[in-house]
Specification:
Elements (H helix, E strand, L loop, with lengths): L7 H6 L3 H9 L4 H25 L10 E5 L5 E3 H14 L5 E6 L6 E2 L9 E9 L10 E9 L19 E9 L3 E6 L5 E6 L4 E6 L10 E3 L10 H12 L4 E2 L5 H11 L2 E4 L12 H14 L3 E3 L19 E4 L1 H18 L8
Parallel strand pairs: 3-5, 11-12, 11-13
Antiparallel strand pairs: 1-2, 3-4, 5-6, 6-7, 7-8, 8-9, 9-10, 13-15, 14-15
The chain binds 2,5-anhydro-1,6-di-O-phosphono-D-glucitol and manganese (II) ion (MN) (2 copies).
Amino acid sequence: MVNSAPSQSSEGDCITLSRYVLHDLKSFSQPAQDLSALMNRIALAGKLISRRLSRAGILEGVLGFTGETNVQGESVKRMDVYANDIFISVFKESGLVCRLASEEMDQPYYIPENCPIGRYTLLMDPIDGSSNIDTNLNVGSIFSIRQQQGEQIDGEGNDLLQDGHQQIGAGYILYGASTMLVYSLGNGVHSFTLDPSLGEFILAEENVKIPESGSIYSLNEGNFWQWEDSIREYVRYVHRQDGYSARYGGALVGDFHRILQQGGVFLYPGTVNKPEGKLRLLYETVPLAFLVEQAGGKASTGTQRLMDVVPDRLHARAPLVIGSPRSVELVESFHQQSTSQSQQPAMADQ
Ligand code: AHG
Ligand code: MN
Ligand code: MN
């Protein structure tokens, strides 16, 4: 009998998310088991949301708005509510997460029965890109894991107003042609694809690295005249170069996933009316900043490293420039130029 190692493909077929997380953490300790279980619950939420989205056109009550507005003042979609409830329900009686903070909820949701043991807070954007749902385009979920510090936490979650370095993990689920889960617990970025026949997320790529630079730029150019000069100058520069491609899908998770794989930059700059931009620090930009840095990329507000930003309130927003390190630096150089020009005597147009 020949005793050979399993082939790459048959081995790859059985590397499930829960198995991989323990390998990733290089430990079978209780904290590692807890994080593995926590990731498994996030994956379960992802499977439930994915299942509902895949039948959106044939099930009652999936598409469309609820008629309510959320704490952000945005119209709430039925899938926003469903996904938010799913994340809460998968963590009830889990002993893993003491509270969840979400883009869709005014204040954090406490699960008191978990609090004596569950020292984690899960922050999430349950459905990102929800305007894509009714046209059967990709959406996502974004999550961030923080360890609770101290015994006392107030009901409003003021202890969450800390920088992104407090995260112990972050990731997203992309509901696209297939459903993918991409995460980092601080040891690189790893991606998984849902095999619907098994109901398991299977390892697609470990240690994902973002290209140093890329030809894709991704932003909503409909806002061109609302941006500050530096962003307009950057876009004019790109238009004059050969080889750039614009790609914008209207869902951050999908647009970011493309940049992570292929390189380039995603931007959501501030506008005249909203200098802080649209995207939320705790639920959207800071989790992706954690992830992109783990993949060798960069994330900034244009002038400051995003991981260093301390939100002044739970639902605070900030401009986002994220992607390949050289591509992000290029955008930042336009900010620096405009700052130095505003400090110098006016120069003639070139
Ligand atoms: P959400 O659906 O969670 O509110 O997020 C929508 C965000 C983000 O996914 C996307 O990149 C951006 O809004 C698109 O905004 P514009 O329509 O202004 O381009
Ligand atoms: Mn979002
Ligand atoms: Mn959302």
